[in-house]
Write a structure and sequence with these properties.
Pfam family, one (chain B): ABC_tran
Low-confidence stretches of chain A: 325-331
CATH superfamily of chain A: MetI-like
Subunit structure (chain B): The complex is composed of two ATP-binding proteins (NikD and NikE), two transmembrane proteins (NikB and NikC) and a solute-binding protein (NikA).
Radius of gyration of chain A: 24 Å
Number of domains of chain A: 1
CATH topology of chain A: MetI-like fold
Catalytic activity (chain B): Ni(2+)(out) + ATP + H2O = Ni(2+)(in) + ADP + phosphate + H(+)
Number of helices of chain A: 16
Mean pLDDT of chain A: 84
Number of helices of chain B: 25
Structural class of chain B: alpha/beta
Shape of chain B: globular
Largest interface: A-B, 24 and 32 residues
CATH topology of the largest domain in chain B: Rossmann fold
Oligomer: heterodimer
CATH architecture of the largest domain in chain B: 3-Layer(aba) Sandwich
Helix content of chain B: 25-40%
Main location (chain B): membrane
Largest sheet of chain A: none
Distance between the termini of chain A: 19 Å
Number of strands of chain A: 0
Order of helices and strands of chain A: HHHHHHHHHHHHHHHH
CATH superfamily of the largest domain in chain B: P-loop containing nucleotide triphosphate hydrolases
Strand content of chain A: under 5%
Strand order of the largest sheet of chain B: 6-7-8-3-9-10-12-11
Strand content of chain B: 15-25%
Membrane topology (chain B): Peripheral membrane protein
CATH class of chain A: Mainly Alpha
Largest sheet of chain B: 8 strands, mixed
Chain lengths: ~325, ~700
């Protein structure tokens, strides 16, 4: 497997390089923004110049840009995200629960929809021209093209207000005071709140997977190797499985891409359901120019996307035997 | 005992506007242990018959009526599940295109094991043992069963599918064009393998192919299909030696043969019938020179000829003997016989001297930093050729020998790495330095695939006229230039083709448009890269005759690149045989055909199948595959596969000047002696005095 190791090594090196580039861009862009996090304090007139300088020095903002950059890099790469300027709390303490909340909602939703919609899409592609195919394409395209907050509001109206089967907002009942993640997430109350946003997220992601899987199978349907499989006496479902297996790559790409992007949360969904996720937090942080918080959040997101891409590459090599040899020699 | 009996089979395809009657009332039967051939051109319905037998018709295909009786049971009456049980267990299938008929993401061994597991309840270990055994039977390394299809060459992939077909020892193997797309030498080896195995397994074989030669050599009985109907059937000896149907006669005539250089193959004019309706007249009537009024009224039923295994569907079957005589004369088919007027060859128009084209292999960053020498693929490695006006130079070789790269380099589509290329008295640098436009006008190239090389959204008028606009040539009389050229390539009346799109044309017509596109600029030089490889025999001959005529009348030089030696022999004046980037033999066609000097040429010649079933041919089976062009062995590149190789061959490489005279040269230290009868002589292998290379005859069991 030396070839594979070399391939992996190369991809890792590329990923690290990409991460460095990404964090540098974050740094530069934030510094290019007009104003600073203390603008509000200054304009309020409550602070004199001396106090302002003192605060700036406390956060290291009086140093040269170069020194700030080196500082920033060393801290970031050792996962020290510093203090949030506005919340006066370590950044990680702010981010961690929000991130977990987002992930606990979106990862299961994404996995579920990837499996269900892909399977449905493959089946639809295999039975091309059937009612199932047409129906599934129309309904998922509709769900995909409707903004997610409309779908969400519609679901809230139907299931929360009219049918009153689930609560409309939040992650836990307001009276619950859980302690730690286990208590938070393993409870019927949480499940009760979870069902609706989960369903909306599943439906929102479903269209892409369904279409990708369907197109892949439609494309493979007439191919010679499936004819040979058929001649071998494989049943319809076994043939479909082979066709599906052969059209996995685009689905895999899309899945890992989405998986990386989940770390950004799904802002609209979080807002509608008042879900305390990372997306909402990020919007607030940017508005208030909370440098450390934004930097850390963007770093985590970039890292997630890069790791997801690395994962995609490795999975490619596993799922498509032609990749590892070709990919190893080029690039 | 009858194994398979097909009775009145009719298959139709439903398309958006109309129903295509692909197979119309076809009947034939195969006895146990018999090799049966199904021959026909594309669109004759031969593959549809196979698909109907296997129950693999695409969704829009239906068996309208007819029975397919296999071992006494009617396959058409079985349920889908029962049908699946018969598949592979009793009827196995060798698919057409080995290149893409294996599942790319499943190891080859697993694919075979899958066939075994589907029908038999065996353990994984047992299935794997069987796969190893099968790999050995078909001549593949049993340790490679975990390799994926892309790690095998085309010929080896076809061996995998053969191994798969043998897995359960079926009673009947259906092979649908098992060798199409493979090189002659590989084709010969595969056919030999199929026959050898089938002999041992004692199963029957249904061989579907357009190569009459392959059927003549391998089958006992055959049916000839045309337009979805059986034109003639019976024992191979009867049908091919004494055909009684005009179509069979035409088909047989249009096969170019290597050793008949005096007789030009005769093409069947016209193109295959439209199958949109139930045939009301004889399907061949439009192209048949013997058609009478009777032929217009009904399609003839097959008539059994007395006292022999032979049936023919022709209204005039009683006059077969006269027709046979008339069919040999090209004028019968409406083709003027201008004789093989050998025109005088003009001055040299293109000359190469030691022409090279090397491709650098991609290297890792590390070795680039270290400054390591990159590896090169020597696609063209020192080729010296010359072409005169009015001359056709044939370039032959297996796939991967660099013949297409040679064509592209001569056309300056690729930059030569080294060597000289002189065109019309000027070195190629002259053209590259600002005169490329002129060069592009004078040198034209016709590509292999007429389906891909024409823009599907342009009419014939635009396609052929485009070069005129680009080169600002005859722009004041564009229309006339287009019409003239179309007529020159035989698309008459030209006006009716002007507004057609490529998809409305047949394959042969499309390739003619491609040739017209090249000719419209009145070039001095034409490079044809396998222009006929996608065409049916009767159309192929048309194209060859067209090129021959152009060379004779238009005063242009032509390089014709192909792997099909028979058609090269027919069309060329001189021939150059390539092997791994080098020309190993060149000379006048008839001298190469009768007395090949290089052992590789000899084996190429002997690999071509013979259409006459009575002729005996000795196979010279070359072992192995061409070596990796990056890492060539020292000495003669052919030595590892050469039956005559000696130590001297492995030490130094013979030059083309090694042997022969002006008219015929070969790069070999030990050329075939002139007194040795013909190329087909296999003596070289058994010759005790010559130490054959270690594995030279492992192909023979």
């Amino acid at each position: 497997m030396t070839k594979f190791q070399r391939f992996l090594f190369k991809r890792l090196a590329v990923s690290i390089l990409l991460t460095l580039v990404a964090v540098s861009i974050i740094f530069v862009v934030l510094r290019l923004l007009p104003g600073s996090p203390f603008e509000a304090l200054v304009t309020s007139g409550n602070l004199n110049q001396e106090q302002i300088d003192e605060i700036r020095a406390m956060y290291g903002l009086d140093q040269s840009i170069g020194a700030q950059y080196v500082n920033y890099l060393t801290s970031l790469l050792t996962f020290q995200f510093g203090y949030s300027i506005l919340r006066s709390q370590p950044v990680w303490d702010v981010l961690e629960p929000r991130l977990i909340n987002s992930l606990i909602l979106l990862v299961p939703a994404l996995v579920t929809t990837a499996i269900l919609s892909s399977a449905l899409g493959m089946y639809a592609g295999w039975n091309r021209g059937s009612g199932l195919e047409k129906g599934s394409i129309i309904s998922t395209t509709l769900l995909r093209s409707t903004p997610v907050f409309i779908t969400a509001i519609f679901f809230i109206i139907v299931f929360a207000y009219n049918l009153e089967v689930v609560p409309a907002l939040g992650m836990r009942s307001i009276r619950a005071t859980p302690d730690g993640y286990l208590e938070t997430f393993v409870s019927l109350d949480f499940l009760h709140h979870y069902v609706l946003p989960f369903t909306v997220a599943v439906l929102y992601y479903s269209g892409d997977f369904l279409l990708l899987a369907r197109n892949g199978v439609v494309e493979k349907r007439g191919s010679e190797f499936l004819k040979l499989h058929r001649a071998k006496g494989l049943s319809e479902m076994e043939q479909l499985a082979r066709a599906g297996r052969n059209s996995m790559l685009p689905i895999l790409t899309y899945f890992t891409l989405r998986l990386g992007m989940i770390f950004q949360g799904l802002i609209l969904l979080e807002v509608v359901f008042s879900w305390p996720g990372i997306g909402r937090e990020l919007v607030l942080a940017i508005q208030q120019q909370d440098y450390p918080l934004v930097q850390a959040a963007v770093f985590i997101m970039a890292l997630a996307v890069i790791i997801a891409n690395l994962l995609a590459d490795v999975l490619y090599a596993y799922f498509d035997p032609t990749v590892s040899t070709n990919g190893g020699s080029s690039a | 005992m009858t194994l398979l009996n097909v009775e009145d089979l009719k298959v139709t395809y439903a398309t958006d506007d109309e129903t295509v009657h692909a197979v119309n009332d076809v009947s034939f039967s195969i006895d146990e242990g018999v090799n049966y051939g199904l021959a026909g051109e594309s669109g004759s319905g031969k593959s549809t018959v196979a698909e109907a037998l296997l129950g693999l018709l695409p969704g829009n295909g239906t068996v309208e009526h007819g029975t397919i009786e296999f071992n006494g049971t009617d396959l058409t009456s079985l349920s889908a599940a029962e049908r699946r049980d018969v598949l592979w267990e009793d009827i196995a299938y060798i698919p057409q295109s080995a290149m893409d008929s294996l599942d790319p993401v499943m190891s080859t061994g697993d694919q075979i094991a899958q066939a075994i597991h589907t029908h038999r309840n065996v353990t994984d270990a047992k299935a794997r043992d069987r796969v190893r055994e099968l790999f050995e039977i078909v001549g593949l390394d049993p340790d490679r069963i975990d390799d994926y299809p892309h790690e095998f060459s085309g010929g080896m992939r076809q061996r995998v599918t053969i191994a798969m077909a043998l897995a359960l020892e079926p009673d009947l193997i259906i092979a649908d064009e098992p060798t199409t797309g493979l090189d002659v030498i590989v084709q010969d080896k595969i056919i030999d393998k199929i026959l050898e195995i089938q002999e041992r397994m004692d199963s029957s074989l249904l061989l579907i192919t357009h190569e009459i030669g392959v059927i003549a050599e391998t089958c006992d009985e055959l049916s000839i299909l045309y337009g979805g109907t059986v034109m003639e059937q019976g024992s191979v000896d009867n049908v091919l030696v004494n055909p009684t149907n005009p179509y069979t006669m035409g088909l047989k005539n249009s096969f170019p043969e290597i050793d008949e250089e005096d007789e030009d193959p005769v093409a069947i004019p016209g193109s295959p019938p439209n199958l949109n309706g139930e045939p009301t007249s004889c399907v061949f009537r439009d192209r048949c020179p013997f058609a009478t009024d009777e032929c217009a009224t009904s399609h003839p039923d097959p008539v059994a000829l007395p006292n022999r295994n032979h049936r023919s569907a022709c209204h005039r079957v009683k006059e077969a003997a006269q027709m046979r005589q008339a069919a040999d004369d090209p004028e019968t088919w409406g083709i003027p016989d201008d004789g093989s007027a050998d025109s005088d060859r003009g001055e040299i128009i293109l000359e190469t001297d030691g022409l090279k084209k090397h491709y650098e292999q991609s290297r890792s960053l590390l070795s680039k930093i270290r400054g390591e020498e990159p590896d090169y693929v020597k696609a063209v490695d020192g080729v010296s050729l010359s072409v005169r006006r009015s001359e056709i130079l044939g370039v032959a070789g297996e796939s991967g020998c660099g013949k297409s790269t040679l064509g592209e380099t001569i056309a300056l589509l690729e930059d030569p790495t080294d060597g000289e290329l002189t065109f019309d008295g000027e070195p190629y640098e002259h053209y590259q330095n600002g005169n490329l436009q002129e060069f592009r006008r004078k040198v034209q190239i016709v590509f292999q695939d007429p389906f891909d090389s024409l823009n599907p959204r342009q009419t014939v008028r635009k396609l052929v006229g485009e070069p005129l606009t680009i080169h600002d040539y005859r722009t004041d009389e564009t229309e006339r230039a287009i019409v003239e050229t179309l007529e020159k390539v035989g698309l008459t009346p030209a006006e009716s083709f002007l507004d057609q799109y490529p998809h409305e044309l047949s394959g042969g017509q499309r390739q003619r448009v491609a040739v017209a596109k090249a000719l419209v600029l009145d070039p001095d030089f034409l490079i044809c890269d396998e222009p006929a490889s996608m065409l049916d025999v009767s159309l192929k001959v048309n194209l060859l005759n067209l090129l021959r005529g152009l060379a004779d009348t238009e005063d242009i030089g032509i390089v014709y690149i192909s792997h099909d030696l028979a058609s090269l022999m027919q069309v060329s004046d001189r021939l150059a045989i390539m092997y791994l980037g080098r020309v190993i033999e060149k000379g006048e066609v008839d001298r190469i055909a009768t007395q090949p000097k290089h052992p590789y040429t000899a084996s190429l010649l002997s690999a071509a199948p013979e259409k006459d079933p009575t002729a005996d041919r000795t196979r010279v089976l070359l072992d192995g595959e061409p070596p990796d062009p990056v890492d060539l062995p020292s000495g003669c590149a052919f030595a590892p596969r050469c039956p005559k190789a000696r130590d001297a061959c492995r030490e130094a490489e013979p030059g083309i000047e090694e042997t022969g005279d002006e008219g015929h040269r070969a790069a070999c230290y030990f050329p075939e002696r002139d007194d040795e009868s013909t190329a087909a002589d296999a003596d070289g292998i058994d010759d005790g005095e010559v130490p054959a290379s270690a594995n030279a005859d492992s192909v023979h069991d």
